Amino acid sequence: MEITEQEARELADFFKIFGDSTRVRIIFTLMAGEINVGELANKVNLSLSATSHQLRILKAHRVVKNRKEGTAVYYSLDDDHVHALICQGYEHIGHR
């Protein structure tokens, strides 16, 4: 299996997303299902603006997606790949 330089850069950038504990906590919370921004901020104990900032980063890297319902914005994981990556990483750290 081979990887191009561009693909290697994109993959490295993707994994950098998981290098922030706040983003990991947000992702873990979203693994339980879709949630609105306010509830998410409360669950991860962050301000609404800090939560929104992290969600923008995660959305830009296609880790999360959102949908609007009236004035509320709901977030969920973008796909099952993200869920699998986090579960495998979490499993890995448990094997010390």
Structural class: alpha+beta
Indicate the percent of residues in helices.
55-70%
Please tell me what the overall shape is. globular
CATH fold descriptor = Arc Repressor Mutant, subunit A
Number of strands: 3
Query: What's the CATH H-level superfamily name?
Result: Winged helix-like DNA-binding domain superfamily/Winged helix DNA-binding domain
CATH architecture: Orthogonal Bundle
Which regions are unreliable across 5 or more consecutive residues at pLDDT < 50? none
- Average pLDDT confidence is 95
How would a crystallographer describe the biggest sheet?
3 strands, antiparallel
List the helices and strands in order.
Answer: HHEHHEEH
Q: State the strand order across the main sheet.
A: 1-3-2
Provide a count of the helices: 5
Measured between the Cα atoms of the first and last residue, the distance is: 29 Å
